[in-house]
Specification:
mainly alpha, lipoprotein
Length: 205
C-alpha cells in the first residue's frame, strides 16, 4: 500500500511539473470581477477568463492548502479544476494533503473520486444526478481495477467511515449493497444507511 502511494504521488507530481512548464494560466484575463459575473448571465468561457482564476489566486490557494489546510482555499481549487478538467489530476496531491497532513477527513470521498476518476477516466458529474441509483454506473467500474489500486481507493472511504464522514458512509453503503469492490452484504449496507441518516439528520425512508 505504501509503495503504491509513493508511485502515485511521484507520478502526479511529474504531471504537475510538466503542466507548469507547458501551460500557464492566461495573465491577460478580462477585467471582470466575481460580483460582476454574478450580476449577469455568463458563459463558461467568460467565467474561466475572469479574475477569479488569476494565476496568483490559484497559487495562493495551493499555498494555503499546503501550509494551513484552508478549506476555503481547497474548495476554490476544486472549483478551478472543475472548470479545467484536463488538469483535474493536479488536485489529488492537495486532497491528500488536506486528509493526511491536516486531518480533514470530510474530504475522504474527494480522494476516492480523484483517484478513481484518474484510473477509470470518467467524471462523477457525468453520472450523478442527485439520486442514489445514479451512483451505480459510476461505481460499477471499480471491479475492473487492479486489486492494489482498488484497495487504495477504498482505503479513503474506510478512513472517512472511521471519522464519521457522511459521504464516505454513503459510498460504502452503495458499494456493499451492490457488491462493487466489496463483497455484497445487505445487512452491513443497512447499518451504514442508518448511520448515514443519523449523522446527516435525514428522515428515514
Amino acid at each position: 500500500m505504501l509503495k503504491l502511494k509513493k508511485i502515485i504521488l511521484v507520478t502526479l507530481c511529474f504531471f504537475i511539473i510538466l503542466g507548469c512548464q507547458n501551460e500557464k494560466i492566461e495573465s491577460s484575463v478580462t477585467d471582470v470581477t466575481l460580483f460582476e459575473l454574478q450580476e449577469k448571465t455568463i458563459t463558461k468561457e467568460s467565467f474561466k477568463k475572469s479574475r477569479y482564476f488569476k494565476e496568483d489566486r490559484v497559487k495562493d490557494d495551493k499555498f494555503d492548502v499546503i501550509q494551513h489546510g484552508s478549506e476555503s482555499a481547497y474548495n476554490e481549487l476544486c472549483l478551478y479544476y472543475g472548470y479545467n478538467l484536463s488538469k483535474k489530476h493536479e488536485l489529488l496531491p492537495y486532497t491528500l494533503i488536506m486528509i493526511e497532513k491536516h486531518k480533514r477527513y470530510n474530504y475522504c470521498t474527494n480522494a476516492f473520486d480523484n483517484l478513481y476518476e484518474f484510473y477509470i477516466g470518467k467524471d462523477i458529474n457525468r453520472f450523478y444526478n442527485g439520486a442514489d441509483a445514479s451512483y451505480i454506473p459510476y461505481f460499477r467500474s471499480i471491479n475492473v481495477l487492479e486489486p492494489e489500486i482498488k484497495n487504495y481507493c477504498l482505503y479513503f472511504l474506510k478512513l472517512g467511515y472511521k471519522n464519521n464522514d457522511v459521504m464516505s458512509i454513503k459510498y460504502l453503503e452503495i458499494l456493499y449493497r451492490n457488491g462493487f469492490g466489496l463483497n455484497k452484504d445487505i445487512n452491513k449496507a443497512n447499518v451504514l444507511k442508518e448511520k448515514y441518516e443519523q449523522l446527516s439528520s435525514l428522515p428515514k425512508i
